[in-house]
Design goal:
The structure is a homodimer of 210-residue chains.
Chain A: E1 8-10, E2 13-15, H1 17-32, H2 39-45, H3 50-56, H4 60-72, H5 76-84, H6 89-106, H7 108-120, H8 123-148, H9 154-170, H10 172-175, H11 188-201
Antiparallel strand pairs in A: 1-2
The first copy, chain A, binds a DNA duplex (18 and 18 nucleotides) through helix 3.
Chain lengths: 210, 210
DNA sequence: GTCTATATGGCGATAGAC
DNA sequence: GTCTATCGCCATATAGAC
């Protein structure tokens, strides 16, 4: 094994320079945004010189795009077990909501990067995001929506399910300042149960539906 | 009336320099973010010199904060007629959803700025946002939630209502790339009706609720 | 593959004339 | 109240030694 300078680790995995740069870039782009992060800052964080970064990436934009792809890779696998589970459609929904909530809550950098990308709304990158990463999940969710509510528009239902989870995670820091906040509102299982119940049953109890 | 150089207008209203600066700042901060917009760019957009901006604002950060306040002012009034209307709780919800969807769709800069602020999650500014702008609306929405679903947690229900509307608007550019997309999914009234129906009745038709 | 040194230009902010 | 001119700094990116 060749002698290697220690740059960064993820858990017990020792990263090479390019991986270290991408790893730090994900964290810092998520935190500061594209123009908020300078190559100097990134170089310092990665324990390298600016010139070393330019050895691996032609310019800042290419580095950014590769960091995005790196952060988004492998997310599909997480939902595979939800779709493969043998259970009722209602239970599948509950598991999907919980899984999505989990991913967004735990991989904070992923959520932040996604937010920034959607806000930027660059059509080319939107397409990359939609086709390359989310399309399959959306399609499976639409099938579930069809099963649960055949008389509703499954595209809109799927979009709403994702929306309610996404924004719940996003608005958590803001909601802390609103009345009625309780400690259990920070627990993923409590939130997941609430959202699932709301999606399945709605607000009005059966009997007094308008 | 003193002779005045024409800097900017909103409709038929002629703006003075400070108003022009704030007006352009809202648009450009929403588009590019704090570090993405330079004072030079802002000065050019406002048809003034950089030094003129510094005549009105001590530094870039103070300008940003004042722009935020300026953009957020007067939003409460829009919802007043929703709450004052004499109608059923279900109809009130429908009107609130439509109004919120309308504000976020039409005042794109407002929505972008809000998004960036929440993502930044600066506690001091979160507090300003929550207390100064949204608290009253959230409180009234909680009362409505209590009326519609007394057995559910009204804080979570209110948060979910806002979440579903907010994220629906935000994710529109992304959703365009997903299967099942139809032209009417761009119409505010269609989306509002879908969201209201989903919130009131949920996914499962009455009878086969788990 | 990584460094130091540097080119070139934009940044926030200020001085001082009008 | 607005300008031109300028400061000092940091940005992205490159050249060339090791």
């Amino acid at each position: 094994m060749p002698p290697e300078r220690l740059l960064g680790t993820v858990g017990a995995i020792i990263l090479n320079s390019k991986e270290t740069i991408l790893n730090k870039a994900i964290i810092l782009f998520a935190e500061k945004g594209y123009s908020g992060l300078s190559m100097r800052q990134l170089a310092t964080a990665a324990n390298l010189s600016v010139a070393a970064i330019y050895h691996y990436f032609p310019d800042k934009n290419a580095l950014y795009l590769e960091a995005i792809r790196f952060a988004f890779s492998g997310k599909e696998r997480i939902f595979a077990q939800v779709w493969e589970a043998e259970c009722s459609a209602e239970e599948k929904l509950a598991r999907f909501v919980h899984a999505l909530l989990d991913v967004m809550t735990q991989d904070h950098n992923f959520h932040c990067l996604m937010q920034r990308e959607i806000m930027e709304a660059n059509p080319e990158r939107m397409n990359l995001l939609a086709q390359g990463i989310f399309k399959q999940q959306f399609y499976l969710l639409m099938q579930l929506a069809e099963e649960l509510a055949p008389e509703q528009d499954s595209h809109l239902v799927s979009a709403s399910i994702i929306a309610i989870v996404d924004s719940t995670v996003k608005c958590r820091p803001l909601n802390k300042f609103f009345p009625g906040r309780k400690p259990e509102h920070d627990r993923t299982d409590v939130i997941a149960a609430h959202i699932t119940h709301l999606l399945l049953n709605g607000l009005t109890s059966r009997g007094n539906v308008q």
